[in-house]
Amino acid sequence: MTPRTQALAARIAARFGGQLRIVPAQTGELTCEVDKERLLEVAQALRDEEGLRFEMLIDLCGVDYLGHGQAEWNTSTATSRGFSRAAMPEVIVTDPEASFDARRFAVVYHLLSISGNQRLRLRVFTGAGNPPVVPSVIEIWRAADWYEREAFDLFGILFEGHPDLRRLLTDYGFIGHPFRKDFPTSGNVEVRYDPDRGRVVYQPVSIEPRVLVPRIARDDNRYETDLRDKPANG
Q: What is the full DSSP assignment across 28-42?
């Protein structure tokens, strides 16, 4: 971290104590983690208090940490599943009676202090509840409106207190949340125009899973040793 970022980290530690935990980062940026029960209180202070003044929410995004930290598969041959970590097509909706790992879903807030010319990343985990829920920060940063709708649409994270939490990017009748790690990469349904019915219809997806095993298959003369090492005029 730069000296200015270290000074900001010290101010945050002195102001919030155990309410905010500084997350180790390799990028030199400051990331803090807060419990969702303290989110609104901490967010209000970060926006309003002298020495902080994070007036602007630059971005808000959801994160699915399912499988986070697992090593890639080691394989030298093609398989029917390749390197995709997504679910098989028959997995459509998570069991509504099941609970999630408490640190599977998170919401990340990217904050900017215009007056202080500093940035801060704030992360809150949703806990084990199904569906995942965190408080809405729309009353603190109005820019959160569509960002929270996007995170709801793509990850299924609910924002308690949002005045109009509807899907933003997917279709009206869409089932599931496409950015979850257990959502099939090819989706569940596709739409097409049916000329016989005179309307758009939904049908099971017809895309075959692709094999994504990385490989190098180069046979041109650039990789022929005898030709590569010859002089250009030879």
A: S--EEEE-GGGHHHH
Q: Using alpha carbons only, give the angle 171, 177, 181 rounded to the nearest 5 degrees.
A: 145
What is the secondary structure of 186-223 as a DSSP string?
T-SEEEEEETTTTEEEEEE--PPPPP--------SGGG
Q: At 223, which amino acid appears?
A: Y
- Of the candidates 90, 87, 93, 86, the one whose C-alpha atom is nearest the C-alpha of residue 205 is 90
Confidence of residue 114 (pLDDT cuts 50, 70, 90): very high
Rg (CA), the chain: 24
Structure tokens at 211: 């094999």
**Do the beta carbons of residue 202 and residue 191 sit within 8 Å?**
yes
Dist. CA 118–CA 2, nearest whole Å: 11
Find the range with the poorest average confidence among 20-24, 154-158, 187-191. 187-191
Tens digits of residue pLDDT in 115-172: 999 999 999 999 999 999 999 999 999 999 999 999 999 999 999 999 999 999 988 7
Count of CB atoms within 10 A of residue 3's CB? 7
- Which helix (H) or strand (E) segment holds residue 226: the answer is helix 225-228
- Neighbouring CB atoms inside 10 A of 111's CB total 24
Give the number of other Cβ atoms within 10 Å of residue 213's Cβ: 14
Angle between helix 3-16 and helix 39-48 axes, rounded to 10 deg: 130
CA distance 193 to 202: 9
**Which amino acid is residue 215, in one-letter code?**
R
